[in-house]
Amino acid sequence: MKLKNTLKKKILSMFSVMTLGFVLVFPSCQKDAGIKPESVLQKITHDTTAITGGVATTQVNTGTAITAPVNTTTQTTSPPVSSVSSTISNAAVTYKTSAPISYTGVNNITISGLSITAGSGPAISLTNCVNVHITASRFVNGTNVNAVGVYLYNCTNVTIDYCYFNNLASGVLASTSTGIYITNNQMLNMQGPMPRGQFVQFVSCYGAGNSIMSNKFENILGSSNPEDAINMFQSNGTASSPITIAYNWIRGGGPSKSGGGIVLGDGGSSSYQTAHDNILVNPGQYGIAIAAGTVMSILNNKIYAAQASFTNVGTFAWNQYASTSGCSITTISGNSVNFTAAGGYQNSSWDGGNCGTISGWNTNTWGANITAAILPVTMITMQ
Questions:
Q1: All domains of the chain, ordered by start, with CATH?
Q2: Cα–Cα distance between 116 and 84 in angstroms, integer?
Q3: What confidence score (pLDDT) does residue 201 get?
Q4: How far is CA 269 from each of CA 106, 252, 257, rounded to the nearest angstrom?
Q5: Closest Cα partner for 202 from 254, 249, 252, 160?
Q6: Model-wide pTM > 0.85
Q7: What span, in angstroms and rounded, lies between the C-alpha atoms of 214 and 63?
Q8: DSSP letters of 94-147?
Q9: Which of 153, 144, 136 is nearest to 98 (CA)?
Q10: pLDDT digits (tens, 9 = 90+) for 28-77
């Protein structure tokens, strides 16, 4: 997402739903107010063959744990220590090398302890699956835009935790799914290219139980090619269970001038999303943003960025889809932001003026006395 620099600059960003073999493109954060974001999401028929241990097999709904007994390797990998949780084990993980996995209509399974090289497609692809737990696994080394770590389409109740993602187009891409819980993972160096480049993106996700919590995400400038760290595209939570992005550590962004930290309401047609208690350091062009939608909240986050050629603004609310979507009932409260724009001036906040009255605006600390030291020098400990 790219936004106005002060009050003048309008921009373009594009996001998509990735299928197994081609990309459906969604324009978002439109360049001109008169440009309508397209809605080209459609149901896709996916391959129903899984690849396990290098052998193609027809899927069966077994309800059992999945492993691939091929080339066992041991990694001394400790699950991440959350800033808010004291229940995480530091036990070493033993991985088994597996070919990429593709499942359709498989329910009540656990995928655990695998090391998967993505190559030219998703490391794990799930379609129409229910009650899946992906845990203590490693997804690395994609070679093109389709090579995400985990791709979910029309899935329900999927938990992804204690996994390591590195050198992929994106970490997790969830489309038309519900009950997606992504927690205590570590991700390093997303490669894109556009429209990928996110650690996590939800596209048309809906309902209760969707959250991204207590993860550690890092892009190293010069070794990555990211867009938004976390992107919520045309997704809707509920009043009692908003889509929640909380307690994540995010460091690194750029050089893209359209990417940044966390964006809520991208694409419009969005509601009930909250980003709270996240810590962001040098996340890219912006820190945390509301691009459109109803009942959107940015609460108690810390955002710091030093001057760079691509930096713009720390926190903002601006309806970039005014011709097709509303923007109302927004709250930006209790945040501490110190964000230096490319021009060298402090630019911690901006109210675009078309999301109604923003609740809590005066409770934020703009130009806060914070530095890059709000995150530790070493964040990523998995490999």
A1: 13-29+65-374 (2.160.20)
A2: 29
A3: 98
A4: 30, 29, 24
A5: 160
A6: no
A7: 28
A8: EEEEE--EEEES-EEEEEESEEEEEETS-SEEEES-EEEEEES-EEEEE-STT-
A9: 136
A10: 343 222 222 222 222 222 222 222 222 222 233 334 454 333 333 333 33
Tokens of 272: 């009930």
Rounded CA separation 309/196 (Å): 22
Residue closest to 145 by CA, chosen among 1, 17, 37, 285: 17
Residue 158 has which token pair?
């999927």
Q: Which residue has the tokens 């867009």?
A: 227
One-letter amino acid for residue 215 of the chain: N
Write out pLDDT tens, residues 227-275.
999 999 999 999 999 999 999 999 999 999 999 999 999 999 999 999 9
pLDDT above 90: residue 103: yes
What does 44-106 look like in DSSP terms, one character per residue? -----EEEETTEEEE-----SEE---EEEEEE--PPP--SS-S------EEEEEE--EEEES-
For the record, the structure tokens of 114 come out as 């695998």
By DSSP bridging, strand 286-290 and strand 327-333 are unpaired
What value, to the nearest 5°, has the Cα angle with vertex 101 and ends 166 and 163? 35
Q: Strands across the sheet with 293-299, in order?
A: 65-66, 107-112, 130-135, 156-161, 178-183, 211-213, 243-246, 271-276, 293-299, 327-333
Distance (Å, whole) CA 335 – CA 92: 36
Distances (CA, A) of 13 to 263, 294, 361: 12, 21, 26
At residue 67, the pLDDT reads 39
User: In sequence order, what DSSP letters do the residues of 203-230 get, joined into one string?
Assistant: ES-BSS--EEES-EEE--TTS---S-SE
Q: Are 140 and 117 in contact (CB under 8 A)?
A: yes
The answer to whether 215 touches 249, Cβ cutoff 8 Å, is: yes
Cα 58 to chain centroid, rounded: 31
177: tokens are 């799914």
pLDDT digits 0-9 by tens, 149-186: 999 999 999 999 999 999 999 999 999 999 999 999 99
Distance CA 202, CA 243 (A): 10
